[in-house]
Design goal:
Blueprint: H1 10-22, E1 29-32, H2 39-48, E2 57-61, H3 67-75, H4 92-95, E3 100-104, H5 111-123, E4 125-126, E5 135-136, E6 140-145, H6 149-154, H7 160-166, E7 169-172, H8 183-193, E8 203-204, H9 206-213, H10 220-234, E9 239-240, H11 252-258, E10 289-290, E11 295-296, H12 302-310, H13 323-341, H14 346-353, H15 357-367
Parallel strand pairs: 1-6, 1-7, 2-3, 3-6, 8-9
Antiparallel strand pairs: 4-5, 10-11
Helix pairs in contact: 8-10, 9-15, 12-13, 13-14, 14-15
């Protein structure tokens, strides 16, 4: 099960090592972390690596079960103990006997039920609803929450004694934004899981992966899994380029990055006079232009001429220009010059050009610019 915790980042390696160390013990574990960070996967790994692995692993989402039903769900009930109790029923603790129970979202449990849970942890006995006869259980408890329990204690919403009973071994699952070096491996993992049996797993272009690494992933690993599932359904077996994906299928914060396919504002030198032709920052001007007549004396290329036009020059080639290609040529020249000035350092170049690093990498690859680190 430990191999299912994907990633080579230091925080993931530390977490796997801690799980391996504490799993053989009987210590109660409290798993802390944001929603979608894989807290249940950690709980399953603890169970699988323990001496209880041959017995049941029983998960319970304390936030998903109505308050008035959770006690019966956890501890069971006797026939006739309440309306609808038409037969005796075992609770999750009794089902998990000699195994592990995973109490997810423990921070959502009501305070009166927290008292009963505390007794189970202290005495190892449960009291089914409708009876006074206690039943002994041998269960290891792993609890989890995305909420700040010390804050809930201050607000009177969580019992301090229960917190210390649960928090014997705390394990924190890192947010995905804290382990971005694992994103590529996670994409491959989820692509295999969500692959169609006919088409095989999808792949993402290197540029698309770099874009995804810049995203903060508020939904964490669950959000990444859902995104790969979405792309697998839309583009089965294909190499996916985010630029080719419908904008509505891309996380909103990334849409502007993905669609940033054109050149932004040019930083040009407007410090020319009527007696001298305009110069372009970082580009050599091999031509002379007559500013008084506005006539063209032979610019070195269409790129420089287009920049002159943008600066308010009156000349325009009679044969016209290919606007999009000309703008792209200008962009390429600026990137090449900025890379040269930065000794090939992409991060420094991105700062000079005032664009995101991932956007710059995508443009470098698109234009086939080779000299960068």
């Amino acid at each position: 099960m430990l191999e299912k915790i994907i990633g080579k980042s230091s925080c993931v390696q530390d977490m796997r090592a801690l799980i391996e160390q504490i799993a053989p013990t009987e210590a109660t574990v409290l798993v802390l972390g944001e929603s979608g960070t894989g807290k249940e996967l950690v709980a399953k790994a603890i169970h699988t690596c323990s001496d209880r692995s041959e017995n049941a692993f029983v998960p319970v989402n304390c936030g998903a079960i109505p308050k008035d039903l959770l006690e019966s769900e956890l501890f069971g009930h006797k026939k006739g103990s309440f309306t609808g109790a038409i037969a005796d029923r075992k609770g999750r603790f009794e089902i998990a006997n000699r195994g592990t129970i995973f109490l997810d979202e423990i921070g959502d449990m009501s305070t009166d039920l927290q008292v009963k849970l505390l007794r189970v942890l202290q005495d190892g006995q449960i009291d089914p609803v409708g009876t006074t006869k206690s039943i002994p259980v041998d269960v290891r408890v792993v609890a989890a929450t995305h909420r700040n329990l010390p804050d809930l204690i201050q607000q009177g919403q969580f019992r301090e004694d229960l917190y210390y009973r649960l928090n014997v071994i705390p394990i924190e699952t890192p947010a995905l934004r804290e382990r971005k070096e694992d994103i590529e491996a996670l994409i491959r993992h989820f692509a295999t899981i969500h692959a169609s049996s006919l088409s095989g797993p999808i792949k993402l272009t290197p540029q698309s992966i770099e874009v995804l690494k810049e995203y903060d992933w508020p939904g964490n690993i669950r959000e990444l899994s859902n995104l790969v599932d979405r792309f697998s359904a839309l583009h089965p077996g294909a190499e996916v380029d985010l630029r080719d994906v419908m904008p509505s299928m891309v996380p909103p914060p990334l849409r502007s990055v993905v669609q940033d396919d054109e050149l932004g504002t040019l930083a040009v030198d407007d410090s020319y006079s009527l007696d001298s032709p305009p110069s372009v920052n970082g580009l050599e001007n091999d031509t002379e232009v007559s500013p008084r007549s506005g006539s063209k004396l032979g610019p070195a290329n269409e790129v420089e001429e287009a920049i002159m036009l943008a600066q308010g020059w009156n000349s325009f080639p009679e044969e016209g220009i290919e606007l999009k290609k000309t703008i792209q040529d200008i962009e390429k020249k600026y990137i090449e010059k900025a890379l040269s000035n930065s000794s090939g350092n992409v991060s420094k170049t991105a700062r000079l050009l005032k664009i995101q690093r991932t956007t710059l990498i995508e443009k470098i690859n698109r234009y086939g610019i080779k000299s960068y680190d």
